[in-house]
Specification:
With 229 residues, this protein is α/β, with parallel strands linked by helices. Helices cover 46% and strands 15% of the residues. The chain is globular.
């Protein structure tokens, strides 16, 4: 029995790059005993199983092109139709635009599924820049460090293997700023979309991980569907 009780709940979690959304989503799904579905994992599973949608997704990915909304929605439908989603799910990474949100809503309606809540992890832009640009990775073993929050014992050297630490290309300032620009351009309307429907819950993501998770638990507990049964 988890601290929230045994519940069936269908959720969507959102947050900008650097918000820690992936970590929080995985922990929350475990706490609720529901399936955590990220877009990337969903595509990989569909491709592994050789489904029709998986084959279509592979074609676009191998050409280096974005997977069309129709394929993303189709893959999501396939994944949500699987038995392990019967007790509930947590979507992470989809939808990213209002168009995708509308397509998801239509698809869920035809499946007889209700989206119980949408949680947005909000973090100020400057905090996101600090988090993303301060990350360093070991060239040898892949261990991750941060210049402020998780410093190596010896500058530019990995604690585990002594390998050289480097900054990934997508963590450089110009790339990070562009990633955030794209995110806010796509997501601001989406936040408003779910707010208007009365299902949006917002959590302050600029605090320690444990405090953020406590607020995520409180947000889920506040949903009408979350009464233990």
């Amino acid at each position: 029995m988890n601290s929230l009780g045994v519940i069936r709940v269908n959720l969507l979690i959102m947050g900008p790059p650097g918000a820690g959304k992936g970590t929080q989503a995985e922990t929350l799904a475990q706490e609720l005993q529901i399936i955590n579905i990220s877009t990337g994992d969903m595509f990989r599973e569909a491709i592994r199983q050789g489904t029709e949608m998986g084959k279509k997704a592979r074609e676009y990915m191998e050409m280096g092109e974005l997977v069309p909304d129709s394929v993303v929605v189709g893959s999501t439908r396939e994944r949500l139709s699987q038995p392990d989603c019967a007790r509930g799910f947590l979507l992470d990474g989809f939808p990213r635009t209002v168009v995708q949100a509308e397509a998801l809503e239509d698809m869920l309606e035809t499946m007889g599924i209700v989206l119980d809540g949408v949680i947005n992890i909000a973090v100020p832009r400057e905090k996101l820049l600090e988090r993303l640009m301060g990350r360093r990775i070991c060239r040898n073993c892949g261990a991750s460090y941060h210049l402020r929050y998780n410093k190596p014992k010896v500058e530019n050297k990995c604690d585990a293997c002594g390998g050289e630490l480097y900054q990934r290309e997508d963590d450089h300032e110009d790339v990070v700023r562009n990633r955030l620009f794209v995110y806010y351009k796509q997501t601001a309307p989406l936040i408003g979309y779910y707010f208007a429907k009365g299902v949006l819950r917002e959590v302050d993501g600029a605090r320690p991980i444990a405090e953020i998770f406590a607020d995520l638990q409180a947000a889920v507990s506040g949903l009408p569907v979350a009464a233990p049964h």
